[in-house]
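User
Please review the sequence:
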Amino acid sequence: MEHGGLQGKLYASVLPAVAGPRPSYVLLHGIGVSHRYLARLHQELAKAADVYTFDLPGFGNADRPRRRLRVEDFAAFVTAVLAEAGVRHYLAVGHSMGSQLAVELALQEPGQVSGAVLMGPVVDDSRNSVARQSLALARDALFSESLSANIIVFGDYFRAGLRWYFTELPVMMEYPITGRLARVSQPVLVLRGAKDPIARRPWCARLAGVAPQGTAGEIPGQGHVFQHTAPGTAAETISGWVRAVDGFGVSA
């Protein structure tokens, strides 16, 4: 789908009409990767919800833009595509850099985004350097991830290309997630893998504390890409949180 000169891919699993409200989830990938490392979580959530996943412009099967995109640009693109698809109310679920996009969508579209899940959020501002982030990524790949997760992630990095990756890297590094998150009025779940060296526990706890309605959660024994290595647990944790905060209209 093309909007504003930007092209991306939308993947949807929509349940037949049933009585009563059910959640709609929009899954948002991080820098360099694609919908592929979200596919298992998509499948788990789709058992009881409508689920939409993207290849954002420049990543996966989507064409590369001619210019650098800001987080705000990605958010505007997602909003336009969802409007075309008739999605009016949803929970934004972002991983890594996708967590920044989830925050931005919550701010830009408060009437549509009923809540946000930040999985392995970046960038920890106490470790805000490319060198530290690269070291943490290497540690995660070597010690915390499965072979299949690494194949998908690094295969997508190769497909996106170093030029586009490094074009977007400063955008990720400079996004002021703590300041932006403090303005999000919707319920927010900050979720990490217990072995994640990128989104460490103190950082995630601080983000949950910054959000006016923030909650912190952890997936035991998993690394940064827990939505691929433990999709059932991740889906149940997210669904359980949605049920717990349903009084705020998350699933409406």
Remarks:
- The longest helix spans residues 71-84.
